[in-house]
Design brief:
heterodimer, A: six-stranded mixed beta sheet, 11 strands, globular, B: mainly beta, four-stranded antiparallel beta sheet
Amino acid sequence: DQQVKQNSPSLSVQEGRISILNCDYTNSMFDYFLWYKKYPAEGPTFLISISSIKDKNEDGRFTVFLNKSAKHLSLHIVPSQPGDSAVYFCAGAAFSSGSARQLTFGSGTQLTVLP
Amino acid sequence: DSGVTQTPKHLITATGQRVTLRCSPRSGDLSVYWYQQSLDQGLQFLIQYYNGEERAKGNILERFSAQQFPDLHSELNLSSLELGDSALYFCASSVLQGNYGYTFGSGTRLTVV
């Protein structure tokens, strides 16, 4: 059961344009959503998050939008830069056993920003 | 350097063998999480420890086990290895159980031949 789905394995955009990465989820118990970025040979690094009670969170060039009714979130990167080329993972957070919140990750989207 | 140290970086072993992956969390972090990333798969949660105690289990096989030691480093033991166990294994740490800003290590790439 894939609770978090990233249906686009890859995305290519021109430098300076907007990158939009999408994520769908099925678990209504998620109360936080996060995006992580991963470069080759490195571990994922935290990028931006949003609480389930909000519909938008912005941090510099990165904005995450949450549509709870559609169980959909998206990450917008404006303007896109070549250094943004990486795999982006969407994750949902919910309490699980032992009163610990757990992250459930999607399969990732490879973003390539073309110069 | 994220502050989370995983060793070894690469491991090649034969089917049926047993291996131990090691993780040293970021200084001050009490929670350690183990994740598995297989080819074209997302990060699958395996297990979490908090201050030496197991707190949550995910899709961890019975052939796999883990522990967190008093100095907070953690080990993931994989036994009776199968070809399908070949994957990237990531360790992450955080200060608190509910802190979402996990810090990940750079992973251990396990290849079972």
